[in-house]
């Protein structure tokens, strides 16, 4: 699992930090109160990461997809999860072998969601997809949580 801060977190962190330390200099508050407020904000962001882990998420692809050279086709993708969430799914196709969208956004409304992935084969051959990359937004929207799911 990889976690990256989103713009919302960076902006709130900057505004909170600047605002708290500006108040400290103007109103001469006790420093301990200000540091506790800043640490509690950091604690909320840490809790956001912990409760936003994507557990029990699986992605299924067909074992074999047959394509014709330079013709559009699709293959089914099935995602199973435990909670409704918005996902960004990315596939790393072999370079110069396929014309396709490399990522798609879907809303996981049910435990199992299926959709078709459009693809066009550019060269003949047998190619294996090794992993699927999934990104979701944390519950409070502070973090982008990324997972690599082996296929």
Would you give an account of this structure?
The protein has helices at residues 7-27, 31-51; strands at residues 2-5, 58-60, 72-80, 85-91, 98-100, 103-108, 112-121, 131-137, 143-150. The longest helix has 21 residues, at 7-27. It has a 5-stranded antiparallel beta sheet. The protein has 2 domains: 6-51; 58-150, Immunoglobulins (Immunoglobulin-like, Sandwich). 28% of the residues lie in helices and 38% in strands. The model has no long low-confidence stretch (mean pLDDT 82). It is elongated, with a radius of gyration of 22 Å. It is of the alpha+beta class and 151 residues long.
Q: How many strand segments?
A: 9
Give Rg in angstroms: 22 Å
Give the CATH H-level superfamily of the largest domain: Immunoglobulins
Please identify, by name, the CATH architecture of the largest domain.
Sandwich
Instruction: Give the number of helices.
Output: 2
**What order do the helices and strands follow?**
EHHEEEEEEEE
Strand content: 35-45%
The residue ranges in which pLDDT falls below 50 over 5 or more consecutive positions are none
What is the spatial order of strands in the main beta sheet?
1-9-8-4-6
End-to-end separation: 16 Å
CATH class of the largest domain: Mainly Beta
What shape does the CA trace take? elongated
Kindly give the count of domains: 2
Sheet with the most strands, sense and barrel status = 5 strands, antiparallel
Give the helix level as a range of percent: 25-40%
Question: Looking at CATH, which topology of the largest domain would you report?
Answer: Immunoglobulin-like
């Amino acid at each position: 699992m990889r976690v990256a801060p989103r713009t919302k977190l960076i902006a709130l962190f900057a505004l909170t930090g600047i605002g708290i330390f500006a108040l400290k200099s103007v109103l001469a508050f006790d420093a301990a109160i200000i540091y506790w407020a800043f640490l509690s904000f950091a604690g909320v962001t840490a809790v956001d990461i912990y409760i936003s882990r994507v557990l029990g998420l699986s992605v299924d692809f067909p074992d074999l997809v047959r394509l014709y050279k330079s013709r559009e086709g699709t293959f089914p993708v099935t995602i199973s999860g435990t909670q409704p969430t918005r996902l960004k799914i990315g596939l790393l196709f072999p370079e110069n072998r396929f014309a396709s969208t490399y990522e798609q956004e879907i809303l996981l409304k049910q435990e199992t969601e299926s959709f078709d992935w459009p693809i066009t084969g550019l060269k003949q051959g047998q190619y294996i997809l090794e992993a699927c990359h999934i990104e979701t937004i944390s519950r409070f929207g502070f973090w982008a949580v990324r997972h690599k799911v082996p296929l």
